[in-house]
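Researcher: Re-running this chain for the archive, since the previous output was lost when a drive failed. Same request as before.
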Amino acid sequence: MSSARRGIVWALALLIYAFPCLLNTPQTSAAVYWGSSQNGLAAANLDGSQPIWDYLYWPYPNESDGPPCGVAVNSTHLYWAGFRGIGRRALEGANVYPATIVPHLSEPCGIAVDQSHLYWGNYATNSLGRANLDGSEANSALVTGLERPCDVAVGDGRVYWMERVGIGRANLDGSASEREFVPMPSSHAGCGIAVGGHYLYWGEADSIYRLHLDSIGPPERLVPEAGGVQGIALDATHVYWNTGDSIGRANLDGSQAQPQWIAGSGVGGGVAVDARPTPPPLTLPSRPILFARSAEYNLRSGAARIGAYVPGQGELRVTSPGLSWKLLRGTVPHPAWAGNFLDRVTFRAGRGPVGKRIRSQLRRRGWASVALHLEYTQERVYPVTATRRFILRRYPGAAAAWVKHPRPRRPSGR
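Model: Regenerated structure tokens:
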């Protein structure tokens, strides 16, 4: 066999051997995150598929709750600027609740992270803040004397921000501040800025502009008609932006722009991208179970019933030993109770040794003390429990009506 034929045979053999490996080679992918009006963050695959609008949210009032005004991500955590603080949530691990790591801020807007610090704008106090990645050593006055800073970016050894007079920059420690590094008209409507590949990107007047950081020439109008920009993020191939109504995407040179790349109602501010596949939806914290103020009692059967306000329409069950129970599910959320649903639980002495003891006490003395344990479970939500003690009463010959405040039975002979 000639050397040429032997080479062809060896090449075919190597291709056949490697083919299964090529099929099993993981495809590189990543995730994009943005603010959601559902009180938290949304996420999607980097091709725009499978958007999850409640990827992360705060279910109860907190300083970092609310649709964020800025989102950032690194290899381990998501960060966001909430109403009055900076929040953080680990991307992996069980029982990891979101936490406010920098509290007591004044309308933080815009957030960026590097290897050691996080940076944010204080819209109400006209300053720039910085803290360690865990929120420690927070300094809300890293750069002062600004005018309504609304977005922050970090890169190329500096921190950048957007305010009313334009785009400013400073050293990472806040020194050598230049407020008008890129001057802009005071009426500009931009609120998005990013740094990458020695370029500065920003949104202004419904367009996205780009400027090489070493250039002295005019900026390049990269994406015209991008829509109102409320956050910009970059990766190796694309620029992403938040319009307030959708997430847009374009190539880094501005071509193939899609302002409605991920469309949806109720988009909050900010956008971020990382190099990891979109993980399964995060497990979310739950609002607590709240008991109604008054219970009702049936003195003939010895039963009681109480309303329980639960966070959603998951599963509510009684876990108390010795009690049998029935549940009437609520179907309409109650705005006065943070949108919780009102379920009604009826319970009485059940079977088994504990239930037998409760029934014996009711027969012998007319009352028995019990503890009602409730457990609420819902997909993607951490289980939550609640306990309340009750005095069950059962009187011979009592009416079958339900009463709210039964009087204790008088001892016989008096």
